[in-house]
Write a structure and sequence with these properties.
- The protein is of the alpha+beta class.
- It has 2 domains: 67 residues, Alpha-Beta Complex (Type Iii Antifreeze Protein Isoform Hplc 12); 112 residues, no CATH class.
- Helix content is 29%, strand content 33%.
- It contains 4 helices and 11 strands.
- The strands form 3 sheets. Strands 5, 6, 7, 8, 9, 10 and 11 form a 7-stranded mixed sheet that branches.
- A hairpin with a 2-residue loop joins β7 and β8.
- It starts with a helix and ends in a 12-residue tail after the last strand.
- It holds the Pfam family RcpC.
- InterPro entries: Pilus_assmbl_Flp-typ_CpaB, RcpC_dom.
Length: 238
């Protein structure tokens, strides 16, 4: 009887020891797995199918933690979506697909799919007047000389500036990206190539329109034809 009790106690102690040992080995194994997985990083996966060129929204994506080692396999993943609403995808995204940097492109600055951006670089025939910045409005004045018939006219007015290129040292504007309708884009490129001179004038912005409308109304309209080289508006001397 005493031998049976002694064996029972021995088995109980062995069971406890084995259980502790198994728990220790399991915890050690978990730690090894965690160490092999490394740190995690937040990525964003699509919660719905997204077509290409579709403007993105934050609610289209869900945050997900994955090990850093897998991020390297996925490429340059997006880890922040603070400015996602200014981007579009180049290719369609399927639900559950991870968002990557190489699949993103900034939203076009054009306000209409019928418009185009024409880059106008300053040179000896093209001049910019005023401190022009992106999203400003400008007027374009074009001077031509066709067979001795010299003409200066308003080519376009209230044209939106999509982008500005500046000299890094002097901060001088070197080129403008102008948003124009497709038909006008062709005409502007023609003028850029063959006109005698092009002047880009900074137009009054919305906050200035009220105070400057009267002064501007007298300078708008018409072209001036001259054979003696003088220019102006409506056949008046400047």
């Amino acid at each position: 009887m005493q031998d049976a009790k002694r064996r029972a106690k021995i088995f109980a102690v062995l069971s406890v020891v084995l259980a502790i040992l198994a728990g220790f080995l399991f915890l050690q194994k978990v730690n090894q797995v965690d160490a092999s997985m490394g740190q995690t990083v937040t990525v964003y996966v699509a919660e719905q199918s997204i077509t290409s060129r579709e403007p993105l929204k934050k609610e289209y994506f869900a945050a997900k933690e994955i090990p850093v080692k897998y991020v390297q396999e996925l490429g340059s993943v997006v880890t922040k979506i603070d400015n996602i609403e200014k981007m579009v995808t180049i290719t369609p995204l399927q639900k559950g697909e991870v968002l990557t940097e190489n699949n993103l492109k900034p939203v076009s600055g054009l306000t209409s799919s019928n418009n185009r951006m024409v880059t106008l670089a300053e040179n000896d025939r093209v001049m910019f007047d005023g401190g022009i910045e992106a999203n400003d409005r400008v007027d374009i004045i074009v001077s031509t000389d066709e067979g001795g018939n010299k003409t200066t006219q308003i080519f376009m007015s209230d044209v939106r500036v999509v982008g500005v290129s500046e000299d890094k040292k002097t901060k001088r504007v070197e080129a403008l990206g102008l948003e124009v309708p497709l038909k006008k884009a062709r005409e502007l490129i023609h003028a850029q190539n063959f006109a005698v001179a092009i002047r880009v004038l900074k137009a009054p912005q919305e906050e200035d329109v009220g105070s400057q409308n009267q002064g501007n109304s007298s300078t708008q309209g018409g072209a001036m034809n001259s054979n003696d080289g003088s220019t102006g508006q409506d056949n008046k001397q400047p």
